[in-house]
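Box S2. Input/output pair 1.
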Amino acid sequence: HLRHESGVSRPYSLAAPAWGPSSTVRFHVRYIAGGEMSELLAGTKPGERFEIEGPFGKCYYRSKTGEEPIVLIGSGTGLAPLYGILTDALFKGHTGLIHLYHGAATSSRLYFRKELAEVARANPNVRYVPTAEAYVESGDRVGSPLKWALSEHPDMEGSRVYLCGHPELVRIGQKQCFLAGANLADISADPFVPA
């Protein structure tokens, strides 16, 4: 939870790479016009105080062997915890395949693309798949990240699955990934519900 000195508090997922300095905390924040925390963050001045409490939740890197496939599926700023999980897995020597499916309404709303492409280039076991519902740039897939993950992983038995972002994507994704063979204990979810 990120808490402003005024008392406004919101949950955010950590988005710092595992290999970064431990004194640095990073978040991916979607600006929502009129949103209390959005407006506070947009207008923050040096010297304003925020407190951080946590982390909480179950959406973090876990592995039984370091070799099982990992499927990361997210939309919008749901990328934040997925990026943390991805970098933590690599930092801890995960050798299994890691597929990251990140989606947005349009290609222009996909962010962090260069960083993710660089991580994929530097790690042969990582695959980054950007998706967009409309106005798709060259190299992006048309449709939802869940659709592409399920089409490329019709059998998820033995995979660890992480779903983050829009609540509907997460809700449907949990069911569809389970029906595709993923064990419920191996599906972690973090729906982003606006305040």
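Box S3. Input/output pair 2.
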Amino acid sequence: DTELAKRAAAGVEVVRGQVVSFLAGFGNVASEWKPDRTRVTRADRLISEAVCSFLRKRFPEDDVFSEEMASEGGPWPRAGRHTWVLDPIDGTNNYATGFPHCAISLGLLRDGFPIHGIIYDHARRTLFHGGPGAGLFANGSPLPRPTADQALGFIGLHSASGQPRAEELGGVLNAWKIRALGSAALHLAYTATGFLRGAVDYKTRVWDIAAACALCDTAGIEIRFLDGSPFPLREFSPDMPRVRYCAGPPEVARELESLLRNAG
């Protein structure tokens, strides 16, 4: 699939090209708050502009969407067969305050479904990428599928603080050891690569997970969306609804969903 291969290579190229800028602002950049009470920094905007400009020039027929397009209006319908979805910094709170778990997340969709993901993991200084049929890679080296004993029973979980349905998480908290890293992209990427056994999140949007969904699909990780899947993506907007999901190998995903729905 030459069309996919050239896009995957370009995605890796452009994300790798933003690492220097990413490192320059880490823990040392002014931030402000958007109307939805999420943080944004100058680095978010610079990375967004650089990545989107590169992709639009390289693939003018593709749709290119970024979290930082709020000032441009929207929503925008998906028009082309290939769509790029960017979160220039996933884990902006961590990035601005110098906590290492943050990432650049770039997903490639075909006909609205994730088919390749590129994630730069700042904590591990690792660039993950891959998709179904292509395999999974870390800094260019192939990764095997995770085994059941790799993740030691850890579940990645977005902070339950202030969530109206926090009581639903009680069963998960009692049954699993929890790691809350502040980055949905990394929770899912770590599930795909075996550092975590699964992930649960109530607060993500499509740009947080588009890339990681492709990695999970490649690794045999099942993502169960609790309110219906956001894919196929039909339109993009910075005001898109939040997504709730649980993820893991099929048996783990089933258990997590059961715990969440029974509690709810």
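Caption for Box S3: The longest strand covers residues 82-90. The mean pLDDT is 91.
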